[in-house]
Design a protein that fits this description.
By secondary structure, the chain is of the alpha+beta class. The chain has 2 domains: about 25-270, P-loop containing nucleotide triphosphate hydrolases (Rossmann fold, 3-Layer(aba) Sandwich), CATH 3.40.50.300; about 275-400, no CATH class. About 25% of the residues lie in helices and about 30% in strands. The chain contains 10 helices and 20 strands. It has helices spanning about 80-90, 130-140, 145-160, 175-185, 205-220, 235-240, 255-260, 265-270, 330-335, 375, and strands at about 45-50, 55-65, 70-75, 95-100, 105, 115-120, 195, 225-230, 240-245, 250-255, 275-285, 290, 295, 310-315, 320-325, 340-350, 350-360, 365-370, 385-390, 400. Strand 4 (about 95-100) and strand 5 (about 105) form a beta hairpin. The radius of gyration is 25 Å and the shape is elongated. Bound molecules: adenosine-5'-triphosphate (ATP) and magnesium ion. The site of adenosine-5'-triphosphate (ATP) has 12 residues, from strand 2 and helix 1.
């Protein structure tokens, strides 16, 4: 099938690079946090590298975090998220590069002379101290008057929703409550920067979701600049103003949750955030690729040379279901990028199905398609004759160079 693109021709989306340049210098305007004054960053990570012996844990990290912004460091296990957070806190010394906070170079300052509060995955509370003693610990060490400490502790207990628990010990509290204490303790000295390392990952799903929104509301209310580490993409997308996707010690992409999800700049980011189908393709023309004997039109200009191998990507929810073959008429089938597929398996998701299908044609590629429940109800999945007509809308297809 052929198709003349009616969509605006833009540059290729593929910006993957082996030795990434300082990513933050490449941030496009659409990556900028909404509602953030892009004057001076509050926190600047400048060319940070970290090696443990011969192992390189972080390479050329450049990142600006603006006042009041909530930034999530997201990536698979071992990609360097905690190492970067610990360098920001001074708990780890960078091999090279600088950390600037509030306009001051803090790269070589000890932890005690930096201005941050931190919450870890394991609540790390003092087991022999009560809730109020845990929260007031830092203020007490600063030698603040008792009445001031008590007033601040009371205020924080209210703020994190722990009224009536001031005299309990950590062992008498649930995981979610302990994490609230840890958060209150991190905020007690009114730090300029809040650092969170997987603060919710030890909690069960319901508590985690509740605390997610509580933390984001609290963060916005206090306006405190926050950097949170997580390997949970749903957490990052729902909480952050901007997400920093990391892979093997470097920054793969920085952007708003929307931007990262809609415009991933590499197959790695596309695969890590949400679900993405990948198909092997070959470039036929500047707006056309083929997958086996199926020709697909693309909504953007393909910059890779003709005949080169590319990866075609599309999200399961972006694939349109046109109907069962036999039940639909030819005008629908004549649309661009219509494929016929056979069902392999179904996964019931409650609000719909995630359907694994094989494309007819010589590629026999398998892809996942999201079918909302009202559409799925009309399909006779049990019939061996069941063949689905699907459309891959040209404007929703992404093309990446094959590595
Ligand atoms: N003190 C250390 N000595 C040697 N290697 C280390 C040290 N700390 C971290 N690493 C290594 O550096 C890499 C990054 O570790 P880091 O803890 O930053 O990962 P992470 O992204 O936080 O992972 P996770 O999601 O599992 O917590 C890992 O390969 C880890 O083994
Ligand atoms: Mg970690």
């Amino acid at each position: 099938m052929t198709y003349s693109s009616e969509f605006p021709v833009t540059t290729s989306q593929s910006q993957t690079h082996q030795n990434p340049p300082p990513i933050d210098r490449l941030i496009q305007p659409q990556n900028q946090p909404i509602g953030t004054n892009l004057g001076e960053p509050y926190l600047r990570i400048e060319g940070v590298n970290k090696s443990f012996g011969s192992f390189v844990a972080l390479r050329e990290i450049y990142l600006d975090v603006y006042p009041g912004e909530f930034v999530c460091l997201l990536g698979p296990s071992g990609c360097g998220k905690t190492t970067l957070l610990r360098i920001i806190a001074g708990l780890e010394q960078q091999t090279s590069g600088r950390v600037i906070q509030g306009g001051k170079d803090v790269s070589n300052l000890p932890t005690s002379r930096r201005d941050f509060g931190i919450v870890f995955q394991s609540y790390a509370l003092f087991p022999n101290l009560t809730v109020e003693q845990n929260i007031g610990y830092g203020l007490h060490n600063e030698g603040r008057p008792k009445s001031e400490i008590q007033a601040k502790v009371n205020e924080l207990i209210d703020l994190v929703g722990l009224e009536g628990n001031a005299h309990k010990y950590p062992s008498q509290m649930s995981g979610g409550q302990q994490q609230r204490v840890a958060l209150a303790r991190a905020l007690a000295q009114s730090p300029g920067l809040l650092l969170l390392d997987e603060p919710l990952s030890a909690l069960d799903a319901k508590v985690r979701e509740k605390l997610r929104s509580e933390i984001t509301h609290l963060q916005k209310r206090l306006g405190i600049t926050t950097v949170m580490v997580t390997h949970d993409q749903a957490e990052a997308l729902s909480m952050a103003d901007r997400v920093v996707v990391m892979d093997k010690g470097y920054i793969a992409q920085v952007g708003t949750p929307h931007n990262i999800y809609q415009e991933p700049n590499s197959p790695f980011v596309a695969n890590f955030i949400g679900i993405m189908n990948f198909l092997k393709g070959i470039v036929l023309a500047s707006n056309q690729v083929c997958c086996g004997n199926i020709t697909l039109s693309t909504g953007v200009q393909v910059l890779e040379p003709i005949h080169s191998n590319v990866t075609i990507a599309i999200r399961p929810e972006d694939i349109k279901f046109l109907g069962e073959v036999g039940a639909i008429s030819s005008p629908l089938l004549d649309r661009p990028n219509v494929l016929i597929a056979n069902i392999n398996s179904l996964e019931f998701l409650g609000a719909g199905y995630l359907v694994n299908v094989s494309l007819e044609g010589d590629s026999r590629e398998e892809i996942l398609v999201n079918l909302p429940i009202e559409i799925a109800r009309k399909i006779n999945f049990n019939s061996s004759q069941c063949r689905l007509a699907l459309q891959l809308p040209p404007e929703l297809i992404k093309i990446f160079p094959t590595a």
